[in-house]
């Protein structure tokens, strides 16, 4: 099952998966700017932002069903298989409906595509942008369907097989993207080649699944649309949550265009955020390795081990960010300037602000990840809805500027990550404010990093300041590591068993 060996394998392949995500994030921007220009980059940004919103509800349903499969697996394998098979049947039908809806909206009404790309209907027709957006959406639907088959590997300790496939797919996808950007350059052609990769790899994966796991298709035949619809109804809060969550993450560029932010400012923000999101993607991949263990501890009511995994992931994220940001901050600036080919205006305050916003996101993201993983739809919806209201409210109140768009992000993250998520977890675990303080204690290393970045803005980077900040940071992390060592006297007092509301 989920042994130490499977976690090590998962971590290895997750690390390679992160390398591919990092390479894609880092290589695409300079290549696009060098060979295709800023207009191509802007279209790429808006295409991905629109696609994230379009598929937000679809992704949420898949994750909801997969979570139920994992949670039931430890109690009733037959029921788990029935739930997953029914979910796949319903999702296949839903994918046909979604694809048909996209075809009608995008191909018959070019104005919808023009609104996405902030251009005219004439340009949409001349550059075949409706076909591009439709093909990209359908390609991503196909890739999302494969995640149902990933679920078969998760509770039996074979999560690493999913990452292995993702690594192979990512290599193929990145190679095709790079070659098409360098040699073809036309936006529509580049995206259609990318969609062809989705189609080919999906067919190959499903073909291999037929050969290696024929029992998976038996479960699909045994599943029912009625159960699939039941799962869909239960996932509606997740669907709403996923949609509005995208407004503050993958689709933030589209939101800024709604508030009449100039495209130059959007390019600035997205380019820097691409750099910071590379770190967020790495942590997300790392914490995914522990999903089966977390779900196992949740099912068994072992809150002590859950809390320990929380602290372990936070500590890992803090150490990575502490070394990168406190010690290597000037290097990050120089890397960005080289990376962007000096074709996007530099803004040091925005650069620092987005790194501070990233620290807030890293802390709160784990708690949201946990709530989603155990299908706690109501607290997830409350958190994401209020976060979005906070974000849009700040964007409405604050004057249009790059810095204010970052302040809005940071304000929304403070609301959910520092104030709301710890409160929701304390209620879920039937505890009081003491549990909230335990969770917030893990934020102290992130806070030290943020304060150090603010000091760099005020007085400039210097080696004594960096060393001083890192010594304080290292002392806090070391103290926390000592207190949280498993089976230590301190840990046994601080992490007593608490009831989990399953």
Textual characterization of the structure:
- The chain has two domains: 1-236, no CATH class; 250-486, no CATH class.
- It has helices spanning 4-35, 38-54, 56-73, 77-108, 110-117, 121-126, 129-150, 159-183, 187-212, 214-222, 225-234, 236-248, 252-258, 263-288, 291-300, 303-327, 329-339, 348-373, 377-397, 402-428, 433-441, 444-459, 463-483, 489-494.
- 84% of the residues lie in helices and 0% in strands.
- With 502 residues, the protein is mostly helical.
- The model is unreliable at 487-502 (pLDDT under 50).
- The protein is built from 24 helices and no strands.
- The chain crosses the membrane at residues 12-35, 41-61, 82-109, 129-151, 163-184, 190-211, 308-332, 344-368, 380-399, 405-426, 438-459, 465-485.
- This is Polysaccharide biosynthesis protein.
- It is a multi-pass membrane protein.
- It is found in: Cell membrane.
- Keywords: Cell membrane, Membrane, Transmembrane, Transmembrane helix.
Short characterization:
The protein has 502 residues and is an all-alpha fold. It folds into two domains: 236 residues, no CATH class; 237 residues, no CATH class. It contains 24 helices and no strands.
Chain-wise SSE layout:
Layout: H1 4-35, H2 38-54, H3 56-73, H4 77-108, H5 110-117, H6 121-126, H7 129-150, H8 159-183, H9 187-212, H10 214-222, H11 225-234, H12 236-248, H13 252-258, H14 263-288, H15 291-300, H16 303-327, H17 329-339, H18 348-373, H19 377-397, H20 402-428, H21 433-441, H22 444-459, H23 463-483, H24 489-494
């Amino acid at each position: 099952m989920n042994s130490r060996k499977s976690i090590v394998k998962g971590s290895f392949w997750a690390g390679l998966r992160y390398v591919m995500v990092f390479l894609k994030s880092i290589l695409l921007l300079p290549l696009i700017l060098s060979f295709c220009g800023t207009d191509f980059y802007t279209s790429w940004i808006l295409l991905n932002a629109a696609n994230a919103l379009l598929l937000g509800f679809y992704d949420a349903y898949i994750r909801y069903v997969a979570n139920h499969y994992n949670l039931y697996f430890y109690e009733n394998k037959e029921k788990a298989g029935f739930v997953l098979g029914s979910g796949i049947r319903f999702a296949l039908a839903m994918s046909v409906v979604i694809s048909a809806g996209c075809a009608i909206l995008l191909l018959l009404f070019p104005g919808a595509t023009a609104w996405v790309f902030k251009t005219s209907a004439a340009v949409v027709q001349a550059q075949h942008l409706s076909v591009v957006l439709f093909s990209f959406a359908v390609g991503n639907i196909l890739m999302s369907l494969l995640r149902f088959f990933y679920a078969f590997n998760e509770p039996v300790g074979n999560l690493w097989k999913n990452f292995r496939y993702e690594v192979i797919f990512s290599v193929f996808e990145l190679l095709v993207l790079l070659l098409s950007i360098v040699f073809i350059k036309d936006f529509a052609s580049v995206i259609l080649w990318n969609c062809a990769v989705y189609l080919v790899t999906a067919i190959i994966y499903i073909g291999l699944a037929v050969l290696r796991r024929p029992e998976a298709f038996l479960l699909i035949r045994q599943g029912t649309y009625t159960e699939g619809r039941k799962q869909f109804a239960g996932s509606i809060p997740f669907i709403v949550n996923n949609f509005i969550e995208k407004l503050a993450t993958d689709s933030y560029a589209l939101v800024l265009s709604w508030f009449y932010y100039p495209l130059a400012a959007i390019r600035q923000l997205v380019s820097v955020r691409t750099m910071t999101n590379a770190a967020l993607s790495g942590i997300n991949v790392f914490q995914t390795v522990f999903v089966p263990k977390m779900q196992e501890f949740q099912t068994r009511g072992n809150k002590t081990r859950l809390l320990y995994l929380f602290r372990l992931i936070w500590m890992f994220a803090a150490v990575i960010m502490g070394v990168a940001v406190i010690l290597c901050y000037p290097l990050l600036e120089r890397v960005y300037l080289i990376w962007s080919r000096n074709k996007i205006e530099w803004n040091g305050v925005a650069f620092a602000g987005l790194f501070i916003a990233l620290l807030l996101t890293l802390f709160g993201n784990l708690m949201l990840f946990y709530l989603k993983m155990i299908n706690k739809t109501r607290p997830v919806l409350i958190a994401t809805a209020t976060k979005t209201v906070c974000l849009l409210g700040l964007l409405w109140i604050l004057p249009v500027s790059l810095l204010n768009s970052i302040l809005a992000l940071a304000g929304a993250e403070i609301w959910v990550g520092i104030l709301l998520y710890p409160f929701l977890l304390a209620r879920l675990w039937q505890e009081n404010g003491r549990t909230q303080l335990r969770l917030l204690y893990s934020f102290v290393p992130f806070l030290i990093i943020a304060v150090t970045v603010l000091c760099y803005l005020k007085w400039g980077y210097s080696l004594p300041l960096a060393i001083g900040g890192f010594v304080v940071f290292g002392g806090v992390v070391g103290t926390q590591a000592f207190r949280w060592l498993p089976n230590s006297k301190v840990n046994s007092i601080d992490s007593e068993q608490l009831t989990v509301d399953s």
